Amino acid sequence: ILHAVIQTFLRPRLKCIEGELCLITGAGGALGRLFAQEFAKEGAHLVLWDCNTAANEQTAKVVRELGVQVHTYTVDLSKRQNIYETADRVRAEVGEVSFLVNNAGVVAGRRLLDCPDELLERTLLVNCHALFWMTKAFLPQMKAKNHGHIVTIASALGLFSTACDYCASKFGAVGFHESLTHELLAEDMDGIKTTLVCPYIVDTGMFAGCEIRKELRSLIPPLEPLYTVQQSMKAILAEQQMICIPRLMYIAFLTRKQRLDNKKFKGNMQQKNIMHYV
Ligand SMILES: NC(=O)C1=CN([C@@H]2O[C@H](COP(=O)(O)OP(=O)(O)OC[C@H]3O[C@@H](n4cnc5c(N)ncnc54)[C@H](OP(=O)(O)O)[C@@H]3O)[C@@H](O)[C@H]2O)C=CC1
Ligand SMILES: CC1=C(/C=C/C(C)=C/C=C/C(C)=C/C=O)C(C)(C)CCC1
């Protein structure tokens, strides 16, 4: 964290990614589409994955206008075999992916005892297990050249908790990112970078079914999607290992134990029984 905070205040050189092949999951979604646009502006060619074919094609249409090559794939990230098969197709039809942006995510948005097992399971599969399968599919080519970058779009809720399925999956994502980073360092794979992105709530509709306390909402309103992606891009291009957006989330993380012990903090975010994925 200290490393990330120091990097945030220094202004590092941003790397050039022109001509790199970048795979983005959840590319039909709000942040996924913006990531695709930002990567295209940097001259990266794109492989876009989503289970929502129409939304994914719409993203492809938008980014093709920026003059980069774009390939779309319909894939269900909750299915390991589907991930491996689609990865094989990408290697055969497009080439070697050097940038992986694991962005797709879902939330069940119900309290533990009200939530069907299948929904809980899906959150873990898409937000956490898929990171393992995606990385296993694409890391070998990166290792062969000691060149690549794996980005994990987690959440501030991967650092402190409020929603059970989602937090567990995002804590898993944070743990995955950290372990992968250690593993790469231990293997001297210094040409393969990792970046963890932990945003506060973003105004994309994903958390439309959640209510945040009024005082909290006026203190920190939900983030703008474009701002979130632009801040993430800066961190990625600076090869920063982690970014919390906004920076206050670093503090929220460091004080999480205190909040768990303090009844005053109960219910800063309340879930209704609705979530648009359900
Ligand atoms: N929005 C927020 O407040 C925050 C979001 N994040 C994280 O950012 C990431 C992007 O979120 P956001 O853009 O808001 O979400 P969106 O819902 O807009 O986009 C997510 C995309 O992933 C797709 N998707 C869902 N399930 C699967 C699956 N099984 N296989 C393939 N694709 C799938 C969705 O398709 P479909 O629409 O058809 O389900 C959708 O296109 C997520 O990981 C989220 O957890 C982090 C912090 C805050
Ligand atoms: C701002 C803030 C808090 C609340 C954070 C919340 C409610 C974050 C929600 C994030 C979401 C929904 C992320 C989605 O991925 C705390 C911890 C009370 C401490 C004080 C600062």
Count all strands and give the number.
9
Strand content is 15-25%
The main sheet orders its strands as: 3-2-1-4-5-6-8
Count of individual domains: 1
CATH topology value: Rossmann fold
Please name the fourth-level CATH homologous superfamily: NAD(P)-binding Rossmann-like Domain
Strand and helix order: HEHEHEHEHEHEEHHEHHE
> What is the gyration radius calculated from CA atoms?
18 Å
Parts with pLDDT < 50 across at least 5 consecutive residues = 270-278
Mean of residue pLDDT values: 90
What gross morphology would you assign? globular
- Second CATH tier, the architecture: 3-Layer(aba) Sandwich
**Under the CATH scheme, which class?**
Alpha Beta
Q: State the helicity in percent bands.
A: 40-55%
Largest sheet: 7 strands, parallel
Distance between the termini: 35 Å
Keywords:
single chain; binds NADPH dihydro-nicotinamide-adenine-dinucleotide phosphate; disordered C terminus; 9 strands; alpha/beta; seven-stranded parallel β-sheet; 278 residues; Rossmann fold; binds retinal
General description of the model:
The protein is of the alpha/beta class. The chain has one domain (2-271): Rossmann fold. The chain has ten helices and nine strands. The chain has helices at residues 2-9, 30-41, 53-64, 80-93, 117-145, 164-186, 214-219, 225-237, 248-254, 256-261; strands at residues 21-25, 45-50, 70-74, 99-102, 148-153, 192-199, 210-212, 242-245, 269-271. It has a seven-stranded parallel β-sheet, sandwiched between helices. α3 (53-64) links the parallel β2 (45-50) and β3. α4 runs parallel beside α5 and α5 (117-145) packs parallel to α6 (164-186). The radius of gyration is 18 Å and the shape is globular. Residues 270-278 have low confidence and may be disordered. Retinal is lined by residues 155-157, 160, 162, 200-201, 207, 212, 216, 220, 248, 252, 265, 268-269.
